Structures are given as C-alpha cells and as structure tokens.
Amino acid sequence: MDLVAACRAFVHVSEQGSFTLGASAARVAQPVASRRIAALERHLGGRLFDRSSRRARLTPFGREMLPPARRLVRLAEAMEDAAEQARHAPLRLAVPEVCTTADLARLDVRARRLGLRLDLQAAPPAARTDLLRSQEVRAALVAVPEAEAVWRVPLGAASVAVPDGASVYLETLRAGRGGAAGRPRRLWIQPEDDVPHVRDRVFRLRDRVGLRPAQVAVARTLAGALAEVLDGGDLLLASERQAEDLGLHWRPVGEEDLARGFDAATSGGEDPGRLRGPLRTGIARCLGDPAGDEDAG
Questions:
Q1: Half-sphere CA count of 108, side-chain side, radius 13 A
Q2: Whole-angstrom Cα distance, residue 12 to residue 33?
Q3: Once rounded to an integer, what is the mean pLDDT over residues 60-83?
C-alpha cells in the first residue's frame, strides 16, 4: 500500500465531505480513492468513514487519524518540493578571479543549454579551496601542479612595451634599463599564481639568473601589479589571453616553461565529470587554456 497516497485521498475526502469531490481534489478517479481509503482502513485497523450516510462523515476513529494523516501529507509534499528545487538548484562553482565576465557569461550560457545552471563565485586560489572544504560551493576550479591538471595555461611576461624577440629572458632584467626612479625592473606575480608550484619555480629562476630578491614580487592585487607595469615599466606574470585583455604585450619566459594548472574539485557527491566533460572547452577559454580557442565562437 502507498501510505502517502492513501492518506492524501483520506484527507481530501474528509475535507470535501464527499468521495467524488475528494477524489477530484486528490486528482484520482473516485473508485481509486475508495480503494485507497479501504486499504488504509485495513492497515490502521479501523473504519475512517461512516458509510451509512450519503456524505463522507468521519467516524470517531477517523477524526483521531485525520491530524496525523494531514501531517504526513504535508511532509510528503514538502519533500517533493525540496526534491524539485534540488533538481533545479544551480551548481555553485568557485572560479579564478582572472576569468573575464564575458567568458564566464559564455560558460553559463553553454551550461544552460546542457541543462545545468551555474552560480559562479570568483575567488583567489586558497579561498576557492576553503569554499569547497566548507561546502559553501559544490565545485571549484582549483590550482594544481601541471602533472595533475585538466587545464593548462601557459604563463609568460606581459609588458607595456613590445618585447624584443620571441621570448623574454629574466636575466636581461639584471642589466636592463631602470624603471621609475632608476630602480631595477621587476616581475610581478599576481594572486592567482601565488601557489607553490608556480611561485616557487619563479623564485628559483630568479635566484638562478642572479636577480635581486625584490625583483620578483608577489602582488596583493592584480590591479596593484598592473599599475606598477603601466607606470614603472615592470613585467607581469600572466597568460597570453589575460595580457591581451589588459592591453599588454606578451611573450613566454625564455628560461622556464611556466604554466598554471587547474582541475575541477567537488564536494557533497557532486560529479566533477560534468565540468571536465561537456564544459571542458568553455572552462578552458575562461582560464586562458589554448584548448579553449575552439570555443571562441
């Protein structure tokens, strides 16, 4: 016996005072409502309605059973509503702050066409991991070493002036012309790249080519780093797509093959395959992975 369906028929018939009207309110045929109520009576061990009257009149036992039946029906309806909302709830996804609004909007459109709603939240690398750990988001694009990455974003040096040659060699900063106030030019690491597998490699490169410690600096904000590049002639560690968006000229770093790595991490049983599969190229474009170039249209 379907206890919820039987209780629903019982409640509607009692409220309408009629098996015919109650069945209509329960959206079932009258014989179906009668069978369900009869089955409920057998299950509970007592008559719910006095059938000697033309109206569906409750017995004393029926009056006792009506309040818990109503509670059961309300709980079942609340559960059905919650399930409907859960099926259509957006996937809250933490994304890097380097993703542009336009690219994120295109990703959202692609997800909608695949039947998935996204709620995108931009955050720095450590914050994305924290949001996922606390389950404030159901998924995050997390920074990982290249060997573990689903998306790989080559990094290089971005500058106001057009660089000489096909690559920028950091060793040239030792003897290069000074920037503002005659100080040596610097390479700025933006917050997205303040992760060990990128930052530490750049620091080791700095030491290897003989730059001063202060010539490679971690910026508190991307805007602050960009101001130094625009005003003082410094360099910004960035992806080619990001440099283009910022109006800078980009070249790869000559001494080291640097790249950001990303993977999709999830919590609460969410399937990361939804991000690594159908949305892979859309995410690639947001991140600056060259694999996303096919998604440009």
A1: 16
A2: 9
A3: 91
CATH code for position 214: 3.40.190.10
pTM above 0.90, yes or no: no
Report phi then psi at 266, rounded to 5. Answer: -135, 165
Tell me the residue type at 248: L
- Estimate the crossing angle of helix 101-113 against helix 280-287, to 10 degrees: 180
Can you give the residue range of the structural domain that contains 236?
153-259
Q: Which residue type is seen at 147?
A: A
Question: Residue 81 contacts by C-beta under 8 Å, 6 or more apart in sequence?
Answer: none
Among 176-180, 201-205, 228-232, 242-246, name the one with the lowest average pLDDT. Answer: 176-180
Residue 185 sits in the same domain as residue 231: yes
CA 190, distance to chain mean position in Å, is 22
Domain check: are 29 and 159 in the same one?
no
d(CA 144, CA 207): 24
